[in-house]
């Protein structure tokens, strides 16, 4: 009907439909939180997106502190990157000093 602007009421979802939709939403959130393929960020709410960004940033910091290959310095702030670089230099210096001391002790 051209020009008709009436309201189209959708029937309410059944309990199984609600549970299925909720399970799909939680599965997507879990997929995103774990960093797995198949994450659809467009399905997340604003709060979920913020929480996800915080969780992914924290995981990246742990990866960087642990010198893991999954560390991505591009996601660190300047101060975080500088702090980690300083810690890595200290860790490298300490390892080299130990190796030199061991070599000297062995004669």
Topology, element by element:
Blueprint: H1 15-34, H2 46-65, H3 78-106
Helix pairs in contact: 1-2
Can you give a write-up of this model?
α1 (15-34) runs parallel beside α2. 64% of the residues lie in helices and 0% in strands. The mean pLDDT is 87. It has helices at 15-34, 46-65, 78-106. The protein has 107 residues and is mainly α. The N and C termini lie far apart (96 Å).
Keywords summarizing the entry:
107 residues; mainly alpha
How large a portion of the residues is in β-strands, by DSSP E? Answer: under 5%
Number of helices: 3
Radius of gyration: 25 Å
Percent of residues in helices: 55-70%
Overall SS class: mainly alpha
Number of strands: 0
Topology as a string of helices (H) and strands (E):
HHH
First and last CA, distance: 96 Å
- Poorly predicted regions are none
The rough form would be described as: elongated
Largest sheet: none
Please tell me the overall pLDDT. Answer: 87
């Amino acid at each position: 009907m051209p020009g008709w602007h009436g309201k189209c009421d959708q029937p309410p979802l059944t309990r199984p439909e609600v549970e299925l939709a909720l399970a799909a939403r939680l599965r997507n959130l879990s997929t995103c939180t774990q960093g797995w393929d198949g994450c659809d960020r467009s399905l997340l709410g604003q709060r979920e997106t913020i929480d996800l960004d915080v969780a992914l940033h924290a995981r990246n910091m742990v990866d960087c502190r642990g010198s893991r290959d999954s560390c991505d310095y591009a996601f660190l702030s300047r101060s975080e990157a500088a702090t980690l670089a300083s810690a890595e230099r200290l860790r490298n210096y300490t390892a080299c000093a130990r190796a030199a001391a061991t070599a000297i002790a062995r004669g």
